[in-house]
Amino acid sequence: MVSMRHRALPKPLPPAGGLKKRGRWASNTDDAPEKPPYSPVIVATLHILANPARFLKIARPLTGIFLGLGIVLIAVAVWAGLTRTPPDYLQGETVRILYIHVPAAWLGMGGWSGIAIASLSLIVWRHPLAQVAGRAIAWPGAVFTALCLATGSIWGRPTWGTWWQWDGRLTSMLLLLFVYLGYIALARADADRGGDGRIPALYGLAGTALLPVIRYSVVWWNTLHQGQSIGLTGSSIDKSLLWPLPIALGGFTFLFAAIVLMRMRTLLAKAKAEARMRRMARA
Amino acid sequence: MTPKSQRLTLALLALAAIVAAVLLAMSAMKDQAAFFYTPSDAKAQGLPLGKAVRLGGMVQAGSVHRAPDGVTVRFIVTDGKATTPVTFAGITPDLFREKSGVVAEGQFQPDGRFVATNLLAKHDEKYMPPEMAGNMHESRSLEP
Fold this sequence. Notes:
The complex is a heterodimer.
Chain A lengths: L1 H7 L10 H8 L13 H45 L13 H28 L4 H30 L8 H25 L5 H10 L2 H11 L9 E2 L2 E2 L3 H4 L1 H39 L1
Antiparallel strand pairs in A: 1-2
Helix pairs in contact in A: 2-3, 3-10, 4-5, 4-7, 4-10, 5-6, 5-10, 6-7, 6-8
Chain B lengths: L2 H26 L10 H7 L7 E7 L5 E2 L5 E7 L4 E7 L11 E8 L5 E9 L7 H4 L11
Parallel strand pairs in B: 4-6
Antiparallel strand pairs in B: 1-3, 1-5, 2-3, 3-4, 5-6
């Protein structure tokens, strides 16, 4: 195994695997008029190597920067949220769960927005990184959605007097978690069969329907969950309680971005390794 | 029109259609998706008798009376337009108080009263430190 890899390494690498599969995009004649008259092989090479390579060159340093920024900001937010803010007049100390519940909700929904954008760019532009991006976002998105549900439940017990109620906001957020899990299963099955990611992308676009439901559930329906506190015009959370929240939001967002970049690099490396194995098996 | 812009138009149209359908469905489902009845809902639609429902609103100021038995509490739920008297026997949640939101689970009685089997406190979107809220609210801070 090891010796095989050593033998294979010095060879100049042709486009990593799946030429037949990706070639379909390249030879997609409907895209032809917009492209310079490159041969299909060159176009395929550009699609497979050039963009991911350029992406990896940028992603490698960015991963560390995002991870560092995320950890620092989260540490500041934890310190501030646990020691520097007053308790709420009604909720007492349980209000502090806000500093993780709100970022988790934001990233659960933001993650799906990311999947929707990736799906759109896969369907419309056949962007070579879109499939990988969608798969990379799905897991952390699902984890943050679950975290949002868990922290909400822990907060709900002392505040509302119940762990769980089937109200509009809670139910739609739970649905989002299931939609994430469905996407993860579908995208993996599609990738395992060498699919081009179009079917998960259609699912990703359709799942976007849930985002307005979650957003407006507390506005249009009467729910146990309170209405939104932070809007474009201001916030009904007092400043003394609010200020660590943007720090926590920024910190968790950087952490999320770092995880997504790590997962994208892993998925790209895995695809490359598999292609190399296939080539060696053929040789 | 190039195939690419064709795909873009189609995808955006599909997205717009999905979102529009959802928003329409949401507004149509307003009554079915409602978590609770408000006192004016109950008045307008007739009392939903004989089934377990939820009643939500604000606890009217000065309306909370605790019976001498120590567990029965009577109060009035208001939504600003109509009111419903509620009786409940049991332990009220910590955040149950006058002028604050409540969701009661139970049944309407033919005379218009509501007998609750469970009370949930509904928190509103306002968050503030105890000093700001004044001393009408006792805070449960861990700090001395």
